[in-house]
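Let us work through a complete example step by step.
Step 1: write down the sequence.
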Amino acid sequence: MIIDKKEKGKLAKKQMSFEERKPKAKKWLAQFHNEENKNIIKCYRKKFAVDRLKAVEELQR
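Step 2: predict the structure and record it as tokens.
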């Protein structure tokens, strides 16, 4: 089975713990602009490959 770069990135994100994800999430959050009425939870979920409840929990931390 051949895994392309996009899939490899998703697998790495899914295996990442919150402690590993936290510095990246802080950096991402500082750069996130809500100018375009984007849903921050949806964007976080897509960026870090987590479910909705996990995204809300982590953003509240």
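Step 3: interpret the result. The mean pLDDT is 80.
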